[in-house]
Amino acid sequence: MDDVIIYLNGEPVKAEKGEMIIDVARRNGIDVPHFCWNKRLERIGACRICVVEVEGHERLVASCSTPVAEGMKVKTHTPRVLEARRINLELLLANHDLNCTACRMNLDCRLQEYANDFMIEEVMFSGKKRHEEIDYSSTSIVRDNNKCILCEQCVQVCNKIQTVYAIGLQRRGFNTRVHPPLDMSMAESPCVNCGQCVVACPTGALHEKSSIKDVIEALNSDKYLIAQTAPSIRATLGECFGMPAGTPVTGRMVSALRDLGFHKIFDTDFAADITIVEEATEFVKRFRENRDLPMITTCCPAWIKFAEQYYFNELNHMSSCRSPQAILASLVKTYYAERIGKDPKDICLIDIMPCTAKKFEIQRPEFAGDADYVLTTVELAKIIKQYSIDFENIPSSAFDNPMGTASGAGDIFGKTGGVMEAALRTVADMMAGEDLTRFDYTVVRGMETMKEAELEIAGEKIRVCAVHTLGEARKLLEQIKGGKSPYQFIEIMACYGGCVGGGGQPPPHRKEILEKRAQALVKEDTGKGLRKSHQNPDVLRLYKEYLGEFGGARAHQLLHTSYTNRCIIDKCR
Amino acid sequence: MIKDLIDREGGAKALESDRVTVGIATCGIAAGAMPVLEKIKKANLGMPVEGVGCAGMCYNEPIVTVMQDGVKSVYKKVTEDNVGELIDCIKSKKVCKKLFACSELTDLDYYKKQKRIVMKNCGLIDPLNLSQYCAMGGFSGIELAVSKKPAEVVKMVLDARLRGRGGAGFPTGLKWDIFSKKSGKKYLVCNGDEGDPGAFMNRTLMESDPFRILEGMMIAAYATGADEAFVYTRAEYPLAIETMSAAIKILQEKGLLGENILGKNGFNLSIKIKKGAGAFVCGEETALMNSIMGERGYPLPRPPYPAERGLWGKPTNINNVGTFGHVATVFQMGVEEYQKIGTEKSRGTKIICLVGKVERSGVVEVPMGITIGEIVEEIGGGAPKGTEVKAVQSGGPAGGCIPKDMFDLKLDFETLNDAGAIMGSGGLIVLDDEDCMVGVAKYFMNFTQEESCGKCTPCREGNTRLYELLDKITRGAGTEQDLKTIKKLSEFVKSCSLCGLGQNAPNPILSTMRYFWGEYLEHVRDKHCRAGACASMLAYKINENCVGCGSCARVCPAGAISGSPKQKHFIDDEKCIKCGKCFETCNFNAVEKSG
Chain A interface, mutation test: which of B290, B308, B460, B507, most A Cβ atoms within 10 Å? Predict the structure, then answer.
């Protein structure tokens, strides 16, 4: 490692040779403003608001894309730099929808934040302005180009990290815009609804399609209200109320939902246990018959749409098992409705999910009539605030029976590697035919986007792989397509970090924050006595009373699904 | 060896023997040369009739050169209608006085101060005739190069002190030196995007002497170890593309491109043409590379520089068409000879497109160190009758203007930079007193903001606002505050833009403000355009000369003129749209135009 000394506003600081100025500045407490800079993406140098003065350079340099050199003298807030930042902001504001008080991202927008920091009261430029129709076509994501500052983060994420290619840059100069290809709407585009663009967008140009209005109406109707909460919500909801990342708020979350008027609050983690039981059964069968391997998990609706669009000939590798949300929804409208003697049409089931793609999932024809609405973590927080509930001080309460108890395996679904680890606990026992006391498969833990391992289970060698981001998924599918996949079991999560990094989770999604969120889930798991899905007594009771055998006919009818060929090329013809 | 592949003597003989040539580069074709060529061919004169490139005196096109019994005659403005006379003269072995221009080009004032070393074949040889090219010294350059070690060749370019001709003037030898030290796969790129309005030096060279450019690339490939090259040409140059493609094919057939060229084991080179798609920004090297790779033509932050990481992540060396032309020339004439031309810091010649308000416009090649005045007055012949030269604009949209009283400035990279202009690729636009300097700045700003790739805020948003402000001023609605805003915004765009397009876009504004501040003030304070070019600030008035004929009223499209027959008429300034039709129509000098 080559160390150099540079001078930051006169002070000597250590830096690595070739590091970008902005990284050194941030490490030394100088939070240089930025729009297009993202640690995980290649520096594009587009927004130019991170400019600084470097002695010897006539022009101002972009600190995000200028590497340090020995003895470099950097100044981050000279009058010239501040003036440049101010003019930059004024130019952006001159071409922006300035109706902030009526904007989804009011008070949560980086452009607003900087404009406030620079006390911009009057914009010295006026002239033509971008004006485009807002795209409300998608189930999950709204695109408003009138608020776009062309920082390209969404495009970079969608193309480079997710390899979905739903949006790109069109035209040039002042007319440049972010848009799906061929003038498609979002709904027509290859968008898989993962919402990583929403997470990346610093302004209100991309945000979730809100279901808040519909939910509030439902809360005030005479329907029987049931909520289910996904595994990762309990680790992230607190951040919406200013709590540090990774604060577990399970009990408070349940209480708040009760205060909102829900009659029953079930735990999606319970359904996660069912997912494991079904998937493990499926996997063991395929493994023993040596067919349709590798098997790929299917909890993630963004990943499912990705596969249906780009790898429709490899759909036989998908597990036929529904996602936990879909399983619980199915059971609520059948098993539970019967149990409490209600017509399923009188039940309103609202999913609290980390995920914008779930808004698409519940509208799939295969799931018609099951879940009614999806609220993301962020949306739930907004409703709680609208109802003036004091979230921080609300006492804890527990989920409701019969679908409120989950094993630790169900809890860890919300992080990358979690589904795989949960599945292996059950697969191992099933294959060995006995209760092995192994719980931890740490090889699939961590933030590397691709984790693989070869395990020996009951005398068999099983090669597993857990990936997150769809770019990694694509690599695996190419391997499968070419007949060269070395794996038998694959977990795919579309979002970086897994569901803790979902499109509906509160930004920012810095690695440290995602890790803390994941840790909260791990703690929940290790704190429980019940750690294996197939040992969940409520799950076993459900099978005994209602579903029958693991992977049996009834289970298949209610808990499994099929996939659709959504070949992109056919759509374009 | 070259002599085994190409018949040099045959070419020399052809050039000395009886022949007729017609200039059919783009300028010639536009002036009507193709039918001329057809008719001369049909006349069966009993000697070869060939199409050649551009001799540079575009103002005289179409040009026909006749070599007959050892006597050369150059004819100008030969058209389909008058070529019959020329043909008759040729048949009767007489000089056609009506169309005669000169015996030797250097007889003309236009050429006297030029030094045509890179363009020496242009308009003389059939561009695709290898023998003729070799007869003029072609390929002696690459022969010299392969007789040395690659590192020696790089040193020769360093010693020649050749500077890039694309606009930045970076020492070519230094660029090659850094590049040649990289290992592994390497690419060469020839930048023929030539996006500056009014610049067609590269086009002329590609159409008129393509082998020279290719020879320069071969020398570069040999010296630096690159084995794959692209010629990136703007799509709007179909003839240049056609000519270069044909030239490449001819060299491939001769084995001068391919593997083990000229018997040198390991000296391999393949050249492909890559067409642009209408984006000025793709002349910027990082955007150009993105375009070659099929990506959006977006510039990238530098470092890393192309020599470090370019096409497909590999080291890439990019030089302008003109630079490769100079490389071949340096090696053909020798480094020492080349040193004798030009100034201390800027060696050699510069090919310039002299356009605008001059008597004689076209492509000229002058030694560095010649003054602007010499180019405009002696070569260009000064402004057309009735007007006076006011300034020249050098360097296109990235450049600046040089006022008349600074015309003793020497043409040299450094002196032009100090004056606030740039050498640029070599477009020199002459402006006269009917050109409004604010309008000139607005023209270039319009170009730049349309061509902006849109990636970075300063250029995309800033240049748009600069254009809007200039437009406001030329419409008579500008204020002194606007001038302050323009200065501030220009400084911002210059210092913060990502690439050369944005960084240099405000130059025309800053330069015209520096030398013609008075015109700006007049526009905002007095709503007056002294050049009479800004229509909204013109006022048309009818004076005492009016006899009341009513002709003006009849042609006025806005119904702004009223008056009774035989009475003095009157123009309503509110209704007047400043079209000037009344001014053109009046036969009594009764309509006055004031700005």
Answer: B460
